[in-house]
Specification:
It is built from seven helices and eleven strands. By secondary structure, it is of the alpha/beta class.
C-alpha cells in the first residue's frame, strides 16, 4: 500500500510554505535513512533539492555488491505562487518520489529491507515560474536543467525511473500511469518486458506505454520541441532511464491546480517500489545488454544526442 505515504507527502507539499526541510522531517523516525537538503539559487528564484538514500542489506553503501536503483521525481515546481494558488499538476513527480521513499523506509522497520541501495531525488519549490508550451502552458523552474541534473542524478544510480506529470499533451489519452521505452546513451530501446510485467501486476490492468521521439531525449535548450522533461535525466547519465508518466485522458496544464489525483500518484509510487525490489534483487532488467552491445557494434555511439549538438 502506498496511498498512506502519498497522502502524507501531498499534505506536506500542498502549502505555500513547503520546503525541503519539511519533507526531510517526514523521515525523522527512520534512523537508517539518510536525507540531505540543498538550497540552490537560480535566475528565477530558489528551490530545495532533496536526496534520500535507503540503504540495502547488501548495498554498495555498506560495501556490498547489490545493484543501486534511482528514482527521480521530475518537475518544474510544486506550486506557481503567486499566480496560482495551491499544488499544481506538475507536483505529481515529486509527491510520487517522496511517497516511494517513505514506503521503502517504512518497509525497513517492518523487516522488509531491499538488497541494494535505493536513491531518491527531487526538488521542492512552491513558487516556481510558468512558461508557454503547446498545447497548454508548462511549469518552469527557478534553475536550469543542467543544475537539476547535477543535483538529481547520482553517479551510483545503475538504473533510473524518472517520474513526471505528463498530462499536457494529446498523445497519451489514459488516466493513470504510463511508461516509456528505455533510453540509454542516446538510443531509444525497446520497452522493457520486465517493467511491463511489473506494471501489469501493480496496476491490475494491461500495461500502458507512451511514445517518445528523438528530440524528447535531447537536452533542453536546443530549441526543439520536447513532450516534457521526463527524459532529461537520460542526457546526463549512461545508466538506462525509463520515464513513468502520471497521465490523464484530457489535456491538463502543468500549472493547473486541483489536478493531482491521489490514487494515480500512489500507483506511480507503488510501481516504483516494486521495480526497486526487483532491480536491486537482480530480477528486473531495463534493457537487453547483449542487444545493446550489438546495436553499438552495428551503428556506433549515439551520445551526440546527449549534447546540444553542433551549436
Amino acid at each position: 500500500m502506498t496511498l498512506k505515504q502519498t497522502l502524507l507527502a501531498l499534505d506536506v507539499m500542498d502549502s505555500g510554505y513547503a520546503s525541503g526541510e519539511q519533507v526531510k522531517q517526514l523521515f525523522k523516525d527512520y534512523s537508517d535513512v539518510s536525507v540531505t537538503v540543498t538550497v540552490v539559487e537560480g535566475e528565477k528564484g530558489s528551490t530545495d533539492f532533496i536526496k534520500i538514500v535507503i540503504p540495502g542489506t547488501n548495498g554498495k553503501s555498506k560495501g556490498g555488491d547489490a545493484p543501486t536503483f534511482g528514482i527521480i521525481g521530475r518537475l518544474g515546481g510544486i506550486g506557481a505562487r503567486p499566480s496560482r494558488i495551491g499544488l499544481v499538476s506538475d507536483a505529481d513527480g515529486a509527491v510520487a518520489a517522496v511517497a516511494s521513499a517513505l514506503k521503502l523506509a517504512e518497509m525497513q522497520t517492518r523487516g522488509d529491507s531491499l538488497k541494494g541501495d535505493v536513491i531518491i531525488t527531487t526538488h521542492i519549490c512552491p513558487d516556481a515560474p510558468t512558461r508557454p508550451h503547446e498545447p497548454v502552458d508548462f511549469m518552469d523552474s527557478p534553475v536550469d536543467i543542467l543544475t537539476m541534473n547535477k543535483h538529481e542524478i547520482v553517479p551510483e544510480m545503475e538504473a533510473i525511473l524518472s517520474i513526471d506529470t505528463t498530462k499536457g499533451n494529446r498523445v497519451i489519452n489514459h488516466k493513470g500511469i504510463a511508461i516509456s521505452p528505455t533510453v540509454k546513451e542516446g538510443y531509444i530501446l525497446r520497452v522493457s518486458e520486465d517493467l511491463l510485467r511489473i506494471m501489469e501486476m501493480t496496476t491490475g490492468q494491461i500495461p500502458v506505454t507512451f511514445p517518445i521521439t528523438t528530440q524528447d531525449i535531447t537536452p533542453y535548450g536546443n530549441d526543439l520541441y520536447h513532450i516534457n522533461s521526463i527524459l532529461q535525466p537520460a542526457v546526463a547519465t549512461d545508466a538506462p532511464v525509463v520515464g513513468v508518466a502520471v497521465t490523464a485522458q484530457s489535456v491538463v496544464p502543468g500549472c493547473g491546480t486541483g489536478a493531482s489525483h491521489e490514487v494515480d500518484i500512489a500507483s506511480a509510487a507503488r510501481f516504483a517500489v516494486e521495480v526497486a525490489k526487483e532491480m536491486t534483487n537482480g530480477t528486473c532488467e531495463f534493457y537487453n545488454k547483449a542487444e545493446f552491445d550489438r546495436i553499438l557494434k552495428l551503428y556506433g555511439s549515439m551520445k551526440v544526442l546527449q549534447t546540444l549538438g553542433n551549436e
